[in-house]
Structures are given as C-alpha cells and as structure tokens.
Design brief:
alpha/beta; four-stranded mixed β-sheet; 2 helices; 23% helix; globular
C-alpha cells in the first residue's frame, strides 16, 4: 500500500481497512475509516475536517480509528 510505504496516515471509506485481522493496530502508520449514514462529498469533507480539528490526532500513530456521524472510536495496539 502506497500510504504505508510513504509512512502516511490513511483516510478511507473502504470497509477493507476495518478488518483488524488484516490491519491490526501497530502494523501500519494509522487508518481513519469514515462511516457516515448518508455521505455526500461535502459531508465527508466536513466530517474529516471536524475530526482533524477537534481530536488529538497526534496520538493516532499506528491506530485504527473509526469516525461516524456522532463519535470517534480509536483502537490502539
């Protein structure tokens, strides 16, 4: 995966990244999975911006993070 090779934190809607057996915390640089009830491009953009502004993302290195409309869940290694 290009993000892993570049040491980047990945933001995605792809449920492939929600499988912690394949992407267990600590085996990558971090994944933010966005799961909105009825996502439009604008809603997705707004939620990502909101999460990055309100959360302490510096603690998310190597974590699996899921953001829904109402909450953010962080799985650590």
């Amino acid at each position: 995966m290009a993000a892993q090779k570049a040491g980047r934190f990945l933001v995605s809607q792809d449920l492939y990244f929600s499988d912690i057996r394949s992407h267990s915390p600590g085996t990558h640089h971090g994944v933010l999975l966005i799961r909105l009830a009825d996502p439009s491009r604008e809603d997705l953009f707004d939620r990502v911006v909101e999460v990055f502004e309100k959360e302490d993302i510096s603690t998310w290195v190597g974590c699996n993070v899921v953001a829904t409309n109402q909450k953010v869940r962080v799985r650590r290694s």
